[in-house]
Design goal:
The protein contains six helices and no strands. By secondary structure, it is mainly α.
Length: 196
């Protein structure tokens, strides 16, 4: 006899339990990969190489390749931008003053002698890697279907992407120069407690 306290095992509960188990295993795998930055990026570059090899050898799926390139460019821009954009803060401050708000709003340091502010990215490195890898895998699977092999004159896509890349990078570099930030740790690292 079954007691009324015991849950009944239905196919829906079994499917939910197996899905939950798969999600836990997936998250555990991602957690194990987290500290291995170089190996993760090398694996993603390997996937990109396999994808590009597939595109070149099959001479098709150029629109999938173009879509992946645009998406990766979007991720790169988000990776290079600060989380708290100084140009947006200036605009918000100007709007508040125009609306008759408080004119003595504290402003973040902007001079060389002001306090240190670390660079916080809009898109963290982990999310950049994970999104890039997922997009590459999805694009690789899209090349397995003839539905995504749209006939297109690929040199136009290449030229358009190169122009788009050059314009967006120029704008990003101008933004970096104007607001005086560098999104990378370059130069000599400070050593504490040791000899110089």
């Amino acid at each position: 006899m079954m007691s009324s306290d015991e849950p009944t095992s239905t196919p829906l509960h079994a499917a939910q339990a197996s899905l939950s188990k798969l999600q836990r295993q997936y998250q555990q795998t991602l957690d194990r990969w987290t500290p291995h930055v170089l190996q993760r990026w090398l694996a993603t570059l390997g996937l990109l190489a396999v994808f590009m090899l597939r595109i070149v050898l099959s001479q098709g799926w150029y629109i999938v390749c173009y879509g992946l390139a645009i998406y990766l460019l979007n991720l790169l821009l988000a990776f290079l931008q600060p989380k708290f954009d100084p140009s947006l803060q200036d605009d918000l401050l100007a709007d508040e003053i125009e609306e008759g708000g408080d004119q003595n709003v504290p402003v973040l340091p902007s001079q060389r002698d002001d306090e240190f502010r670390p660079f916080v990215r809009r898109l963290p490195e982990w999310q950049f890697w994970l999104s890039s890898t997922r997009a590459t895998l999805v694009s690789l699977f899209c090349t397995l279907s003839e539905v995504f092999d749209v006939p297109v004159y690929w040199p136009i896509l290449v030229v358009y992407f190169c122009v788009l890349f050059a314009l967006t990078m120029r704008r990003q570099i101008q933004h970096m120069i104007k607001y005086k930030y560098i999104p990378f740790d370059i130069g000599r690292k400070a050593r504490y407690g040791g000899s110089k």
